Amino acid sequence: MKKLILILSIILTSNLFAQLDRSIVPDAQPNPEIKIEIPEPLTFGNGLKVIMVENHKLPKVSFQLYVDYPNEMEGDIAGVSSIFGELLGSGTQRTPKDVFDEKIDYMGATFSTYARGFYASSLKKHTPKLLHLVNEVLMGPAFPQEEFDRIVAQSESSLAAIASDAGTMSNNVSSVVNYGANHPYGEVMTETTLANITLEDVKEYHQRFFIPNHAYLVIVGDITKDEVKSYVNEYFSTWKKGEALNSTDFAVPPAKGKNVYFVNKPGAVQSVINITHTVELTPGHEDEIKLKVLNQILGGGSFSARLLSNLREDKAYTYGCYSSISSNQLIGSFTAGGNFRNEVTDSAVVQILAEIVRISDVEVLDTELDLVKKSMTGAFARSLENPQTVARFALNTVRYNLPSDYYATYLQKLERVTKQELILAASEYLSPENLNIVVVGNEDIAEKLAGFDVDGKVAYKNYYGEDVERLKDVESGVTAESIFKNYYMKTLMASNDEEIASKLKAAQQIETISKAELKAYSATILMYSAEAASNKTAAYLLIKSPMGNQVGQKEWFDGTQGGNVAGPVVTVYEGEELEDKKKPNYPVNQIYYKDDATVTVTLMGISTVEDVDYYKIKIVDEESTVLEFYDVKTGMLMMSETYGTNDKDEPTTVIVKFDNYEEYSGLYLPKNTSINNEGQLFEFEVISRKISKKIKSKAFTGNFKKVDKVLGKL
């Protein structure tokens, strides 16, 4: 009997496979409704809303606090919220920062703060200890002055880095032109607003905005409802309720026609293009999923997306070109762009605009829509493996008052999106004829973009989105050579040409010791520099910190040979680098520009910066481009910007500012020098300067024993 059953089984199975045609692709089944349990928030006496997501797979618990206070203008202290967010994690009134950090590390826990709250996680057994520290942060953050100073110093360095970061420039300008100066999203922290922020501003910000009745606490992990209630009552209930804050409506200036905004980044070998406008799209809007599908087809990131396929695969203009459509409580935005070679910048704008028009006018292909739906379905399903995803869904549901089944029916809504709906959504939300075109790059390409502007004019902006006045014409008779001569005559304090030779003879060597404070690292840099006739140079950096003294760099050249040491790397000058060192430059380069056939000098015009007029001169040689700015009134060099490349052929930017010129033994030289090297900001002040008639420093030959001894005593 068993044998008969086995034979029948084989026969039935064979017949089944014989009837199956594997060449026919089975019809896709409709996306099912997913069971996602969105927990109801628990509201406590002080107004704190708590969302709990149980997950008992691992013995871990995480706590995310989000304070949903309304957006407001920060005005002349723009940036105070970010300073507050970082300072919030700088210890408490009971526990100094170093001890606080040690306790977190000892538990193997995680704790970080930001402007709207914090994130903390640990093994479940450490939860009471972790929440004890969290309670201290809520009840009594320290806000120490020294940490405030350190964070401000770090922020200054971050702002200094913008000069070499075209992406940040583009984002700043896009925010300003999209949202306007009277919108919180249009505010940008600058050196001026940062300098206005005080510790009292931070404390006031905390007092007003960091309140429980505007806060959500999301708890995820190996925890029960009873444990949550116990923890909240013990560690969060004493957090005092604050005065409720009302939301403010902010007007957004509509884009009228195409508007081109350009930020000059001298020496840039490629341009950053950002084509953008605002979108009336709030979280959970019925069109949000349609627009996500639309964006994936246009430029969402896959190689099949239209922008990438066109501008990378077909035109070879770039490595990447993408788009995004985002929703927001106040107002959403659309952006499209990427990085492009200088010579194809205008062509890239043409193609990006064409793709925006095409997706707004012509229905997408069935294959495009099907591919994107499958991709988004898979990404959504994978995201559910992370319990933090459910927590995020719960927070969004409560914050934005979404339907309780918004995420449970997400895949069904995604599946129902049609080509006809996409073209209707594109025509409603995309504005190919009313948008902002923001380009950051070399100014040589700026005028090529004028044809895209509705008025045929390019608006010039600085790093922060502020208007930049175009260069004005120089006065009749003023040349680059006359500006240089005026400068070096004043530097040498010479009244005529005959005095120059005697001045140079009396100042054969200049030795300077300068100091810069690195507040962010509690360190001091002492720099010795020496210059002498016949192109002799030497430099020595000593870094003093709580960790001890460390030599940062040594450089020397005796007129014929030299080298430098940076860490373990020793370089001996040779080849083109050696020949460049031999070029005459003492005591100022400007004396010798006219005799150097490898240098091209161009007087560009008068640049106005913060109501001060400067002669702007471009100096180009085989290695770099230098822009020098001379005060029209005083004739002194106040800033130089050097644009070149490093050993990896990557663009580099060094900005040097000079200030407080004083007399030193017959020479008129700056007392303060600020060096911004690729975002690393060093502000040096001269503490001693010696002018000698004889060349006697041994540092020119690489002997720094005396220098090291002198700096070590300071």
Give a structural overview.
With 714 residues, the protein is an alpha+beta fold. The protein has three domains: 177 residues, 2-Layer Sandwich (Cytochrome Bc1 Complex, Chain A, domain 1); 204 residues, Cytochrome Bc1 Complex, Chain A, domain 1; 234 residues, Clam (outer membrane lipoprotein receptor (LolB), chain A), CATH 2.50.20. It is 33% helix and 28% strand. The strands form three sheets. It has a 13-stranded antiparallel β-sheet with strand order 18-17-16-15-14-13-25-24-23-22-21-20-19, sandwiched between helices. The chain has a six-stranded mixed β-sheet with strand order 1-2-6-3-5-4. A six-stranded mixed β-sheet has the order 9-10-8-11-7-12, sandwiched between helices. A hairpin with a 2-residue loop joins β17 and β18. The chain is globular, with a radius of gyration of 32 Å. 33% of the residues are buried. The N terminus is likely disordered.
Structure described in brief:
With 714 residues, the chain is an alpha+beta fold. 33% of the residues lie in helices and 28% in strands.
Strand content bin: 25-35%
CATH topology of the largest domain: outer membrane lipoprotein receptor (LolB), chain A
Main beta-sheet annotation: 13 strands, antiparallel
Mean pLDDT: 91
The total of helices stands at: 20
Which value, in Å, is the CA radius of gyration?
32 Å
Assembly type of the shown chains? single chain
Second CATH tier, the architecture of the largest domain: Clam
Sequence of strands across the biggest β-sheet: 18-17-16-15-14-13-25-24-23-22-21-20-19
The low-pLDDT segments are 1-20
Determine the structural class based on helices, strands and strand pairing: alpha+beta
Distance between the termini: 103 Å
Specify the helix fraction band: 25-40%
Total discrete domains: 3
Describe the global form.
globular
